[in-house]
Amino acid sequence: MRHPDASARQISVPETSVSLSGLIRPGSPAAGRRGGGSAPRGGRQVSRGGGRASQAASRTPAAASEPELPPGQYIPAAWPVLHYGPVPTFHPDTWDLRVLGATASGSEHRWSWDELAHLPRCQVVADFHCVTKFTVPGIAWEGIAAAELLRAAPPDAAVTHVMVWADFGYSANLAIADFAADGTLFATHREGEELTPEHGYPLRLVVPSRYAWKSVKWVRAVEYLTKDRRGFWEERGYHNTADPWREQRYSYQERPGEGPPLE
Questions:
Q1: How many C-beta atoms surround the C-beta of residue 98 within 10 A?
Q2: At a CB cut-off of 8 Å and minimum separation 6, what does 151 contact?
Q3: Does an H or E element contain 202, and which?
Q4: CATH class of domain segment(s) 8-253
Q5: Which of 21, 36, 78 is nearest to 242 (CA)?
Q6: What is the H or E stretch that residue 138 is in?
Q7: Per residue in 73-104, pLDDT tens?
């Protein structure tokens, strides 16, 4: 099987427009994790703003030592391109992003490509940890914080998870706390340039605390869930939680409570 190409770990913690206290329930596994599953190492959040932005993120000088890597990871010579299925064609006149499921209003929310460009933007520097064992350190992303989408389309109080959908039916599930984490964003740019089609253009999710396949490319919808449900690879033998620092690669490693039953 082929795998989505990248996951990332948040490096720094920007302010968000959504209070996480209303999303993380006391006693939940997410409530006891550090920053959605990993400690901030090796980078920083750069800036936040409104409207379109195309400037490259300013970068800190390279550290003298090698970046810290999760267990079993290595740094490749180049960023591999891995994904399941074909690369979709982008049609800006008909493309949209939808938020559906258990919304607070009970209604579906929708943004056209032009409307999405007016949401506030942010920049995040993060490492990518692919389940196939490569890590690309210190990548500068630019886009829309997932917390901004939660503000624009609030979830019902009963929501515990989200399912992120891509073209051709690909999906990945996340706990609401991991989706709302400060470093999670919907990226449109990498290193100051628009994403390339093979890396998710026009819009991909970046989840700093999770393995690559959770960072869905070619995002088209976010579904709010009131109970967990496995996504595409999670149904096919991959770990439901996917924390690279705990090396949660496969479903056989899951402990009680870390995922719904495999069907």
A1: 15
A2: 17, 18
A3: none
A4: alpha beta
A5: 36
A6: strand 135-145
A7: 999 887 778 777 889 999 999 999 999 999 99
Has residue 108 got a pLDDT over 50? yes
Kindly report which listed range (25-34, 128-137, 188-197, 213-222) carries the lowest average pLDDT score: 25-34
Residue 138 and residue 75 in contact, taking contact as beta carbons nearer than 8 Å? no
How sure is the predictor about 198, in pLDDT bands with cuts at 50, 70 and 90? Answer: very high
**pLDDT at 31 > cutoff 80:** no
Domain ranges of the chain: 8-253
Contact 237, 183 (CB under 8 A): no
Give residue-wise pLDDT tens across range 200-248.
Answer: 999 999 998 999 899 999 999 999 999 999 999 999 999 999 999 999 9
Indicate the helix (H) or strand (E) that contains 182: none
Q: What is the chain's Cα-based Rg?
A: 17
Pairing type for strands 185-190 and 204-206 reads antiparallel
Pull the structure tokens for residue 120.
Answer: 């506030």
CB 51 within 8 A of CB 22: no
Q: Is the bond into 202 cis (omega within 30 degrees of 0)?
A: yes
Residues near 258 by Cβ (< 8 Å), separated by ≥ 6?
A: 29, 239, 240, 241, 248
